[in-house]
Design goal:
Largest sheet: 6 strands, parallel
Bound molecules: zinc ion
Distance between the termini: 12 Å
CATH superfamily of the largest domain: TPP-binding domain
CATH topology of the largest domain: Rossmann fold
Order of helices and strands: HEHHHHHHEHEEEEHEHEEH
CATH architecture of the largest domain: 3-Layer(aba) Sandwich
Length: 246
């Protein structure tokens, strides 16, 4: 795989790099996308039922059963080469941040230490009444009515549902990191959900070099300094090799 000289040099010289990842990265690990594509989750399941507060309030047990099944599925799957290469970059660059729209925790499993989860995490629960947040205890027995250890109210999955805002602190941190990076690499993001889709523009406005890796073209094609079309699990290891082993 051939890469432009400028791209290689920009990465070699970077002191702060941000990876912004979306469904396309985890899809290669076998996790179906939620929104895009013919086999996406919301093509098969009604998001009104499984991904809204009213849906949860109407039938929390049904919603919990569904997320519990997803937890079991995610556990059985593994991070892929793209997740591993992203984590390896921590050894080479002074500051590496991963901003992700995925809820699967695969970046952390691959070893990434600084991960901002814009859509929450399937590994976390939060209480419906007061937003107390907990790491899921990991046991594999289904709990029909999980309750908050702080206030006793019903727990829900700590993921961002339709009609909900992105978590303030996470989004603020993501904006800060995008406005303070030398290179931003967007991988497998569809780039049509706002405000997350604004993040690359924040980086460009601050002078960052923007690389996009995607199977498909997106809104970013025209503004990216470099577009690499293909699978992240193939492009990322090749890019690493081109930067450090040539
Ligand atoms: Zn609580």
């Amino acid at each position: 795989m051939k890469f432009e000289r400028t791209l290689i040099e920009k990465i070699r010289q970077a002191q702060r790099i941000v990876f912004f990842t979306g469904a396309g990265v985890s899809q290669e690990s076998g996790i179906p996308t939620f929104r895009d594509g013919p086999n996406s989750v919301w093509q098969h399941f009604d998001p009104e039922v499984y991904a809204t507060v009213p849906g949860f309030d109407k039938n929390p047990t049904k919603v919990w059963e569904w997320y519990w099944e997803r937890r079991q599925t995610f556990k059985a799957l593994k991070p892929n080469a793209a997740h591993h290469v992203i984590a390896a970059w921590q050894e080479k660059i002074q500051k590496v941040t991963v901003i992700t729209q995925n809820i699967d925790g695969f970046h952390q499993r691959a070893g990434s230490q600084s991960v901002i989860e814009l859509h929450g995490s399937l590994a976390m629960d939060k209480c419906r009444a007061n937003g107390h947040s907990f790491k899921h205890d990991g046991n594999s027995v289904f709990d029909e009515h999980p309750s908050c250890a702080e206030c006793g109210s019903l727990l829900r999955p700590d993921v961002v549902w339709f009609g909900e805002a992105l978590p303030d602190v996470a989004y603020y941190q993501a904006e800060m990191d995008c406005s303070n990076c030398d290179v931003l690499i967007c991988i497998g993001c569809s780039m049509d959900i706002y405000p997350a889709a604004n993040l690359p523009y924040t980086a460009i406005a601050s002078g960052a070099y923007l690389i996009q890796i995607n199977l498909n073209s997106t809104n970013l094609n025209e503004v990216a300094n470099c577009n690499l079309r293909g699978k992240a699990g193939e492009i990322m290891p090749a890019l690493w090799q081109a930067v450090y082993e040539n």
